[in-house]
Amino acid sequence: MLTIEAFSLYIMICVLAPLIGAFTLLFLFVFEKRIDLIEKEKNEIALENELQKARYNQLNQEIQPHFFFNTMNSILSLARLERKQELIHSIETFSKLLKHKYKTNTTFITIEEELSYVLSYLEIQKIRFRDRLEYQITAEPDVQQAITLPFLIQTLVENAFKHSFEKKAGKAELAIHIEAEGPALRITVTNSLPNEGESDSADGGIGLSNISKRLDLLFPDEEKSVGISHSPHRTKVEVVFPLVYKSDLKE
């Protein structure tokens, strides 16, 4: 037979047990959220570090002295030939390109923004390569406001010149194609005159390795890939990652 004290203790346990359980679950929920927040902040810091590394690589490798001086010599030749309109356009384009190199400091930009700077770069290269260079850019209208990593497309384009067009004679043909494939965005850059000095993996070069690392940080739990393939007549690089629009991030 229960005593009054034992019965009171039993009642107290019955009352307190659900409360203790609820507080424990609440604590675990808050703790888990805190862990997720810390992990998110850690990824954001790592992503920013990789972006700074990408900027460093762009400033110290892609804008190489030979590119700079060859471009300046091309602009100087326009001045000597008194081709005023072409000269003004070339200086404006070169200035826009350098401004982008030095001032881009966000973790992502839109496809439309990235392509505008890629076009500046290609216009400069057109001055250098003249009729030898042909390029084509195709991007579906509905992907223009999709986000991408800063320098992603430009790095792939610059690799084509650095590892191919500047090392080999012949027609320099470049094709950039961007399309949506269900929930994914596919960016393909193909160039004639196969690249030299790059392996078939994303770790084959600083540029591709950096792109792969930044994609892992920006989309840690999503499918993505960076691949490069060579054939006797071309080199193709494909980058696939989740299709996310800038407007989605604002909501």
Which key features would you list for this structure?
251 residues, two-stranded antiparallel ribbon, alpha+beta, Heat Shock Protein 90, 7 helices, elongated
Write down the overall geometry. Answer: elongated
Q: Poorly predicted ranges (pLDDT <50, ≥5 residues)?
A: 58-63
* Residue share in helix: 55-70%
Work out the radius of gyration. 27 Å
Strand order of the largest sheet: 2-4-5-7-6
Number of strands: 7
Which sequence of SSEs, written as H and E, runs from N to C? HHHEHEEHEEHEEH
Largest sheet: 5 strands, mixed
Amount of beta strand = 15-25%
Structural description of this entry:
This protein is α+β, with helices and mostly antiparallel strands and 251 residues long. The chain has one domain: Heat Shock Protein 90 (2-Layer Sandwich). The protein has seven helices and seven strands; from the N terminus they run αααβαββαββαββα. It has helices spanning 4-62, 65-80, 84-103, 111-129, 152-165, 206-218, 246-250; strands spanning 109-110, 133-139, 147-148, 172-181, 184-192, 225-231, 234-242. A five-stranded mixed beta sheet has the order 2-4-5-7-6, with helices on one face. A two-stranded antiparallel ribbon has the order 1-3. Strand 6 and strand 7 form a beta hairpin. Helix 3 (84-103) crosses helix 4 and helix 4 (111-129) runs parallel beside helix 5. The termini are far apart. Mean pLDDT is 77; it is low at 58-63.
